[in-house]
Specification:
By secondary structure, this protein is α/β, with parallel strands linked by helices. It has helices at residues 5-8, 21-32, 50-62, 76-83, 100-110, 132-143, 163-166, 179-193, 199-208, 213-226, 232-239, 245-256, 259-271, 276-295, 307-317, 322-339, 345-357, 365-383, 394-397, 432-442, 444-450, 469-477, 479-493, 517-527, and strands at residues 39-44, 89-93, 120-125, 149-155, 170-174, 427-428, 454-458, 461-465, 498-501. The protein has a five-stranded parallel beta sheet with strand order 2-3-4-1-5, covered by helices on one side. It has a four-stranded mixed beta sheet with strand order 6-7-8-9. The model is unreliable at 387-424 and 509-515 (pLDDT under 50).
Length: 535
């Protein structure tokens, strides 16, 4: 009979447990020194090794020939625990045995000495599902347990475990296993099992597993049955990542504000047997992925998709601002919540699409602030001399850059400017912080290069001070960055400025002379109408 990979490759020793070295090292040391705790609480997400470590503890404390704190796996006790023949090790599923009667039976049984082992071990899985009565019944014996009893509690939701239980246990937090660690383990297992697994496919499975080794092995099993040679495309098909084109089409309609097309695409997806709540959830993930493209330096580590799909995300993200994507996620999540309270799921999704395509119909504070911000930007752009009433697409900005019109005499070309700007002509630019905020919406990638800079006004130019050679190179040669910065300055100030690097010393800020304390008191008294005799 075929045995699933996650069962066949279940760790036999603490050394085999992947990604939890700090926990396994502590457990080995305790057992090797003969000082195991009377109660353990193992918590973490699914597939991270909680139940496996619980069984390893049960075997290690009872093993007849332990090896450096780990069970030998060959003695009668180890083999009996693996097969379930040893009655002194009991596994209880709290999801189905969560009543007080089950725990009372456990308490009565725990008072008896073990039959063949040194310790009687109780493994209670999903312990957060125990009823209040069962918890109360368990508390007493956990507080004063017999010397021959060890309790091991495992849970995926530690916040639901009562504090009275947690305080009586030695707690271990199982972390999600890294995708690189999972990929390396999969390649090792594939080599041992003669499974043709490509490196990129293993990495994709590692990201899809979301930190769970068991889920990764189950997906590898599925891919093995799906095709002989396991490629990223095979993994994508087996995991259901294909068929995302309708999400790009709906997001494209939202970007253009084409409500008719968006509603038509939603209707077509529904006719194609896609449930509307599922489609709404997919759209939330889609807009989240677009937001990661704009916000992260390494979005490929945060987005689970094929390389060609990642390029599609990069292209579509240029049609959105970060604020608009955040609002899209919020609107769709509101629709998801509303779907749980109504049978008209299609109507909820269509209403969300209307709000996304036409912000005028969205009366939420976020939408109103977004509209006000756009109006302010257009007004300042108009005051700056016609930079354009409608915001062009990022791809068009480099084709039609704004023409500089400095407020003072035209400065000489950058190549002929002196190396140092006269400090007496430069004054601090007080609105530089607002300009950077606006730049983050027009060109998020450029804002990072300007973080930490200061700016000064000199004639009709805004001069930016920075010691970074990368910043200077970008300011000098990246036309898109220059146009974005000029546009941001114009939309904040209502004036069109030229830009350039600042090479001079920081101008001294002159503070207004403060009045003497006595003079200040006299002035305030006179303003209040109080007669003062200073003779």
């Amino acid at each position: 009979m075929y045995q699933a990979l996650y069962r066949k490759w279940r760790p036999r020793t603490f050394e085999d447990v992947v990604g939890q070295q700090p926990i396994t090292t502590t457990l080995k040391n305790e057992i090797r020194q003969g000082r195991p705790a009377h109660a353990y609480l193992l918590m973490g997400s699914r597939g991270t090794g909680k139940t496996t470590c619980a069984r390893l503890i049960a075997k290690a404390v009872n093993c007849l020939s332990p090896v450096d704190g780990s069970p030998c796996g060959a003695c009668d006790i180890c083999r009996g625990i693996d097969s379930g023949a040893v009655v002194d090790v009991v596994e209880i599923d709290a999801a189905s045995n969560n009543g007080v009667d089950s725990i009372r039976d456990l308490r009565e049984e725990a008072n008896f000495l073990p039959n063949v082992t040194k310790y009687r071990v109780y493994i209670i899985d999903e312990c957060h599902m125990l009823s209040p009565g069962a918890v109360n019944a368990l508390l007493k014996i956990m507080e004063e347990p017999p010397e021959h009893v060890i309790f091991i509690l495992a849970t995926t939701e530690v916040q639901k475990v009562p504090a009275t239980i947690q305080s009586r246990c030695q707690r271990f937090d199982f972390k999600r296993v890294g995708s690189d660690t999972i990929a390396a383990r999969l390649l090792h297992i594939a080599g041992e099992e003669a499974i043709p697994l490509e490196q990129e496919a293993a990495e994709l499975i590692g990201r899809l597993a979301d930190g769970g080794m068991r889920d990764a092995l189950s997906l590898l099993d599925l891919c093995r049955a799906h095709s002989g040679q396991i490629t990223p495309q095979v993994v994508s098909q087996a995991a259901g990542l294909v068929g995302q084109e309708h999400l790009f089409q709906i997001a494209g309609a939202v970007a253009k504000g084409d409500l008719s097309q968006a509603l038509e695409l939603i209707a077509r997806a529904g006719e194609g047997s896609v449930e509307y709540d599922r489609l709404c959830s997919q759209l939330v993930s889609h807009f989240r992925n677009l937001l990661m493209i704009l916000s992260s330096k390494k979005p490929e580590q945060l987005i689970i998709c094929l390389p060609e799909t990642l390029e599609q995300y990069r292209a579509q993200a240029k049609d959105f601002s970060a604020g608009r994507l955040i609002r899209a996620v919020q609107v769709l999540q509101d629709a998801q919540n509303a779907m749980t309270r109504t049978a008209s799921r299609r109507a909820e999704l269509e209403m969300a699409a209307i709000r996304l395509c036409d912000p005028r119909l969205d009366q939420s504070p976020e939408a109103l602030l977004d509209r006000i911000e756009k109006l302010e930007a257009k007004l300042n752009a108009a005051l700056a001399g016609g930079l354009g009433a409608s915001e062009p697409r990022p791809a068009q900005r480099t084709q039609a850059p704004a023409r500089e019109a400095p407020a003072g005499p035209a400065p000489p070309p950058p190549s002929s400017r002196p190396s140092t700007e006269p400090a007496q002509e430069a004054v601090p630019f007080p609105q530089w912080g607002e300009v950077l905020e606006r730049l983050g919406k027009l060109n998020p990638a450029a804002k990072g290069a300007f973080t930490g800079t200061t700016a000064y006004l000199a004639g009709g130019r805004v001069l930016i001070a920075s010691d970074s050679p990368v910043f200077r190179e970008m300011l000098r040669n990246n036309e898109y960055t220059r146009d974005s910065l000029k546009r941001a300055i114009a939309e904040v100030t209502g004036t069109r400025y030229g830009i350039g690097p600042y090479n001079g010393p920081a101008p001294a800020v002159q503070e207004a002379p403060k009045a003497a304390p006595v003079e200040d008191i006299l002035q305030r008294a006179q303003e209040a109408g109080v007669p003062v005799d200073i003779r």
